[in-house]
Description:
The chain is an alpha+beta fold. It contains ten helices and 18 strands. The protein starts with a helix and ends with a helix.
Amino acid sequence: xxxxxxxxxxxxxxxxxxxxxxxxxxxxxxxxxxxxxxxxxxxxxxxxxxxxxxxxxxxxxxxxxxxxxxxxxxxxxxxxxxxxxxxxxxxxxxxxxxxxxxxxxxxxxxxxxxxxxxxxxxxxxxxxxxxxxxxxxxxxxxxxxxxxxxxxxxxxxxxxxxxxxxxxxxxxxxxxxxxxxxxxxxxxxxxxxxxxxxxxxxxxxxxxxxxxxxxxxxxxxxxxxxxxxxxxxxxxxxxxxxxxxxxxxxxxxxxxxxxxxxxxxxxxxxxxxxxxxxxxxxxxxxxxxxxxxxxxxxxxxxxxxxxxxxxxxxxxxxxxxxxxxxxxxxxxxxxxxxxxxxxxxxxxxxxxxxxxxxxxxxxxxxxxxxxxxxxxxxxxxxxxxxxxxxxxxxxxxxxxxxxxxxxxxxxxxxxxxxxx
Length: 420
């Protein structure tokens, strides 16, 4: 495989310097115009690679096609596969004026980020660093996030496509490329047309630790509880006022203390998370995020919350409450289990890249979760990054290379195995 380390590194350093932070408060699509600055660069670069059907849609998506190089008489049925990454970075931490630092040949110990003395990478608290001895580690200067989520994925896809395009001996079927916007605020697939994209199976390249293939996400709902009270002048409120704020406080106080919250759960444990509260005496609205890895577990948590609400309301005579459930996304494994070859090929590709493959789950959601339920089975491939959405975000260049090799091997594997 003709891998150009310096070219991949230059791509990544270029991309992370471009501010593409999305904005969950915006009503436009994409939520910020600055995401399009990277999208336009990617369009130009895809065209320079002589890909076909390169376009920037009115909603900010970048699409392109790498045509099949299979002989016309090739007997196996090879599906069109897609690779997807998102251009936006998290609203949680600034992505403006990112100054990436390359720490060559990391030999262990702590890495201090120069612009913020509190930002220190320490293998004692960040054990993944111990697996990267001798690697080249990239961080920000500590004043911003790095943007490896998901500019590492973009870099790895672009580098893999460059290799496939310029190495005719590596056989591959038709490959579709998509770079989406607004993934970090949950809107990445809002206008994604699966049929026009044209892939039968796809992979988001948006994971973390080297070797991980993620085929599960949370099931997610949002519950909106609207509590209605009664407001009167506080000087004359005795036996008249019903303070909805106090009703809301009582409900939150009644939530489980040692379980079913983000701060008390891990692995396959779900939670009930009061994420936002607003209002006054007359009316208070609470937004709850409900998460579980099964639909059944999701419903149990929603039933529990409704039961706690009913019990709380009974203690405040005259108060009323409205309980609304809105579906967010579902565990993509419900779909991927119907197409086992999609994940199996990814695992084999990781192993061909020379590292140990590990199936993992995401305590969150991805574009792939929604795309899977839109008819495009889409598990998630690692990028090699860590500590996403923080100033301590970092990535190994060598692990980026392994992700790139995984994409190339995956393209070849679908040719070797065919669509079973």
